[in-house]
Design goal:
The protein has 352 residues and is an alpha/beta fold. Helix content is 43%, strand content 15%. The chain has 14 helices and twelve strands. The strands form three sheets. It has an eight-stranded parallel β-barrel with strand order 1-2-3-4-5-6-9-10, surrounded by five helices. α3 links the parallel β2 and β3. α4 runs parallel beside α5, α12 packs across α13 and α13 packs across α14.
Length: 352
């Protein structure tokens, strides 16, 4: 076991010092694109103006015979595209694949100064993060990088869920964790072929009331896993995300699933199609009325101790902390999104 004193020391001579705290940057939507698809890559500059994170996908959805082309395409996009303040992430191939090592060597040494986060699929335990951690440090030293790349794990196996707490705390590089519902469903032998979302067969039924029809309520297959992931992330100071919602045409259900994740503590979700971008933006941005109320409570509470009555409701230090979460998120988003900043300011002016 490593000494706690060594935790924040570089794992390779010449590598940048690890971060002591993960910087919070807006990441309401992690928008996936295939960098090996020239038409899709050409749209990256325009997409960068709409999203918080662009992710060059090298893993699933990229056929085996196009892996190298996707990798080369991401290098080209990183070097040539003007992304403004939008983050650039990548999802490498799984660690048991023949492509993962070349993914890391190529991307870190050639565009490591442009990348923000490396997403690692099918993480099953701390050992996977430790491997990537050490390798990234060696490659950062080789490339002469002055800041460490961050690591994001995807929770998509039963073993990963069982070890989620140790994964979240495995390295100072850990930026966050996403739910990967499709692979997780297969790993658990769940009887669903949907990519995220609910299932009409997963329900509760009201007790019988004579001969009256018994109402059913569809349940959330992912509630337990998301809640456990959120707790692990919160305990280790990193960020939780909902993953993909596969039914691109059903924006209503997509919004419902994203909102459930937001209310549970997730800060963003994956978007697989441009139609989902505005959904994620709307859901993972606090409503102007909620932000105005949070600021009102904060203003009335002063130093955050004691209790006050506002509109006949008691507010104390616990609600003060809840309001701080909302207000601080709103500040971070408003700094990036002028339209959102204006809506927050307008809500405060009218006293919503």
């Amino acid at each position: 076991m490593r000494s706690a004193k060594d935790f924040f020391r570089p794992l390779a001579v010449g590598a940048p010092a690890p971060l002591h705290e993960v910087p919070f940057r807006p990441s309401r939507m992690i928008h996936f694109f295939d960098p090996g698809n020239e038409k899709m890559a050409a749209k990256v500059p325009a997409l960068a103006r709409r999203v918080d994170v662009l992710l060059g996908n090298l893993e699933d959805a990229v056929p085996a015979d196009r892996k190298e082309a996707a990798r080369a395409g991401l290098v080209s996009v990183a070097r040539q595209a003007d992304l403004g303040g939008t983050q650039l992430w990548t999802r490498i191939n799984s660690l048991d694949s023949p492509w993962a090592l070349d993914d890391l060597i190529t991307l870190v040494t050639e565009i490591g100064d442009r990348l923000d986060v490396v997403m690692v699929p099918k993480v099953e335990g701390a050992q996977d993060i430790h491997y990537v951690d050490r390798l990234l440090a060696q490659l950062e030293a080789r490339a002469g990088l002055d800041r460490p790349l961050l690591v994001h794990a995807i929770l998509e196996t039963a073993a990963g869920v069982g070890n989620v707490e140790e994964i979240a705390g495995a390295s100072p590089r850990m930026q966050g964790i996403s739910l990967g519902p499709a692979d997780l469903a297969a790993s658990r032998r769940m009887k669903t072929t949907r990519v995220g979302g609910g299932h009409p067969g997963y329900l509760v039924r009201e007790d019988p009331q004579g001969d009256a029809p018994r109402v059913t309520h569809q349940q959330d297959l992912w509630h337990y896993t998301i809640a456990r992931m959120v707790d692990a992330c919160a305990a280790h100071g990193i960020l939780p995300y909902y993953g993909p919602f596969g039914d691109i045409q059903d924006l209503t259900a997509c919004e419902d699933q994203f909102r459930n994740a937001f209310l549970l503590g997730c800060v963003g979700a994956w978007t697989l199609h441009p139609a989902q971008i505005d959904v994620a933006k709307r859901v993972f941005s606090p409503a102007p009325a909620d932000v105005a109320w949070a600021r009102r409570v904060i203003g009335a509470m002063g130093d955050g101790t004691g209790a006050v009555m506002i509109d006949g409701k008691m507010q104390d230090d616990a609600t003060y902390k809840q309001c701080r979460v909302v207000a601080e998120l709103a500040d971070a988003l408003a700094a990036r999104d002028p339209e959102l900043a204006a809506s927050y300011a307008a809500a405060e002016r009218v006293g919503l």
